[in-house]
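ok new one. same drill as before - structure tokens go in, u give me an amino acid for every spot. 346 of them this time. try not to just spam alanines like last time pls lmao
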């Protein structure tokens, strides 16, 4: 029997063998009574009965969470709490309790997952097509999911906790991280337009439908953009890592393709708008001066943190410069947010 993969978790070394078995060995025991002299097999994570063509392909994990990758595309996750139960059961003379089963996160199954990055409470999945998805818990809504600022993350499907300031993604449905700044600007604009605070807190089904709609729209961002034989997206993630409440990714950026996609979402000015460009530039400069002064007053009064999402959405829909105000195609579109509301008699 030969060790094929191994990881170090908090208090345990977990490893796989060439006969497709998974073991854990405790390293944190300090007393003779609690010490572990032999690795314990985590039997529920793999069974070769009737599946001789399926093998353990990889083992990944850190801190208190780990994952087993099968050659069938299945990904099984577990925790040190799960290992604790196996260790306790191995020392018991009467095994009356049921051994814990691994978790099967729906958004990871047969989704060409290459790497999982484990934070304290959130997990990122790097997929073979260069995208990264998120699930788990975002503690204190610090933005650990990478789905945008905390207030707009609800539009992507993050559910607010009723008892804490955390946000949660259960992993049943894929939520992809967007690296294009203009996509995050569009998300902020949608939040400022919809102001979904009440729906996010009261209607979980509304949050799910919203998350699905934005996931579909995001996947079509580069639709129709071609660059010869290059089939890679404008943003192709090569690596992802996570620790604590933080995350980082190494991303290959095709700036030319990204700019083509941006231009697709910019509304071309009409003839009337071109004729009034000089006046528009003057108005834009005066408006910028006013906004700067108004922002300085709000900062002095301590109001800049309030309604941050509305400010982002309202101000980010304009790019002021030599060409005047830039308009985006989404300003003439209305997200079907009313259709996301639950069926209730009004």
């Amino acid at each position: 029997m030969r060790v094929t993969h191994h990881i170090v978790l908090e208090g345990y070394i977990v490893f796989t063998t060439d006969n497709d078995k998974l073991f854990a060995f405790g390293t944190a025991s300090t007393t003779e009574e609690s010490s572990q002299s032999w690795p314990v097999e985590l039997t529920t994570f793999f069974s070769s009965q009737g599946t001789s063509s399926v093998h353990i392909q990889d083992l990944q994990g850190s801190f208190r969470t780990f994952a087993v990758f099968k050659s069938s595309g299945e990904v099984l996750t577990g925790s040190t709490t799960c290992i604790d139960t196996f260790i306790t059961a191995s020392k018991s003379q009467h095994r009356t309790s049921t051994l814990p089963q691994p978790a099967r996160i729906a958004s990871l199954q047969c989704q060409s997952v290459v790497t999982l990055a484990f934070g304290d409470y959130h997990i990122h999945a790097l997929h073979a097509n260069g995208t990264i998805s998120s699930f788990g818990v975002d503690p204190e809504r610090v933005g650990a999911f990478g789905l945008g600022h905390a207030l707009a993350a609800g539009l992507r499907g993050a559910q607010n906790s009723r008892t804490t300031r955390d946000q949660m993604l259960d992993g049943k449905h894929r939520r992809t991280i967007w690296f294009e700044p203009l996509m995050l600007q569009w998300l902020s604009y949608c939040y400022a337009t919809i102001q979904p605070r009440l729906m996010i807190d009261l209607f979980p089904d509304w949050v799910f439908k919203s998350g699905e709609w934005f996931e579909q729209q995001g996947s079509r961002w580069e639709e129709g953009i071609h660059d010869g034989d290059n089939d890679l997206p404008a943003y192709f993630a090569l690596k992802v890592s996570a620790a604590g409440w933080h995350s980082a990714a190494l991303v290959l950026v095709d700036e030319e393709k990204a700019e083509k996609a941006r231009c697709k979402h910019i509304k071309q000015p009409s003839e009337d708008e071109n004729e009034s460009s000089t006046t528009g530039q003057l108005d834009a400069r005066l408006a910028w001066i006013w906004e700067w002064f108004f922002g300085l007053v709000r900062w002095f009064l301590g109001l800049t943190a309030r309604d941050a999402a509305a400010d982002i959405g309202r101000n980010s829909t304009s790019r002021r410069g030599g060409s005047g105000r830039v308009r985006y195609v989404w300003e003439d579109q209305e997200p079907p947010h009313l259709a996301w509301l639950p069926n209730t008699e009004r």
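Residues 25 and 37 are 8 Å apart (CA to CA). and btw The first strand starts at residue 3 and ends at 9.
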